[in-house]
Write a structure and sequence with these properties.
Largest sheet: 2 strands, antiparallel
Strand content: 5-15%
Oligomer: single chain
Shape: globular
Helix content: 40-55%
């Protein structure tokens, strides 16, 4: 392939999987040259990218995780080799299970090949599983939350390409997982149960680290997206009231700063208004039911 048309390159030095000792060369996304054309930021702080005339559709998220092509162990690069013996044993023991899940949803996937949307989505699905067996030193809840949200995004993208498939349902599953994990993250940030410095870039996308403010904002967004659909009306109301507290605690002053840019404040106000509107509608319905 013409060097000018390449999207990625392989690292010269091989990576060695700590689980199965397989050697492979990690793929890295090249930058510049019009490869990435940043588009709008969604309400979930996901950066959309316009299709490049020269390179086509590019998904930067697909290149983030390191995945062993042999045993499907997946982790963020800085965590890939930091496994303890007990973690290695457990992740090795579940190799067949990981492969079966990937085969069930994707058929045949080759992590030695260049990354694309399917291998990107699978990499996050695998990371959610693998971080479930990691120790607190690597801040696994943060990594599970971030991987779940990104998995939901990429499965959503796959669903748009293949509406008849099961990708849409898988996206819903990972949105629920992300919601549960982000709620746990709020508690962890307050109690220090996991080291925040080990969380690294909290994203949620690769273009900007929104930090603690982003975590609170996304917890509110996911509460609106997932928590507001709880079958128990009382629980729904509680979830949204809690969601309002997240937002008002952080952005109640309405003043911008380096950590609270106007872009985030504007989105926060929109979410806050949506929550109030939904709560008002539910309260009216509840009052009508009671009267009836």
């Amino acid at each position: 392939m013409d060097k000018d048309l390449r999207l990625s390159y392989r690292q010269k030095n091989p990576s060695v999987c700590p689980v199965c000792s397989f050697e492979f060369h990690r793929e890295e996304l090249l930058s510049g040259g019009g490869r990435l054309i940043a588009g709008k930021l969604t309400d979930e702080l996901k950066r959309n990218y316009d299709v490049s005339k020269k390179y086509g559709k590019v998904c930067p998220l697909a290149y983030v995780l390191t995945v062993c092509p042999s045993c499907y162990y997946s982790a963020f690069p800085k965590d890939f080799e930091t496994l303890e013996n007990s973690e290695i044993d457990k992740i090795r023991e579940l190799t067949a299970a990981r492969k079966n899940v990937v085969k069930k949803f994707f058929g045949s996937l080759d992590f030695n090949a260049n990354r694309e949307l399917k291998t990107g989505a699978a990499s996050y699905m695998l990371a959610v599983d693998c971080y479930s067996y990691r120790n607190k030193k690597v801040a696994p809840t943060f990594k599970i939350a971030l991987s779940s949200l990104r998995a939901a995004w990429l499965f959503n993208d796959l669903s748009k390409e293949n509406p008849e498939g099961a990708y849409g349902k898988i996206a819903v599953f990972f949105y629920k997982k992300a919601y549960q994990s982000y709620v746990k993250m709020i508690d962890i940030l307050q109690t220090g149960a996991e080291p925040v410095d080990a969380a690294g870039n909290m994203g949620p996308d690769t273009d900007k680290n929104w930090g603690y403010e982003g975590v609170l904002y996304l917890t509110a967004v996911l509460t609106l997206k997932v928590g507001s659909k709880d079958p128990d009306p009382k629980k729904r109301m509680e979830n949204l009231e809690k969601c309002k507290r997240y937002l008002s605690r952080l952005f109640g002053s309405g003043k911008t700063s380096k950590s609270k840019p106007s872009e985030l404040l504007d989105k926060t106000k929109d979410i806050y208004d949506k929550i109030n509107q939904l709560l008002d509608e539910w309260k009216k319905e509840e009052a009508q039911t009671t009267e009836g």
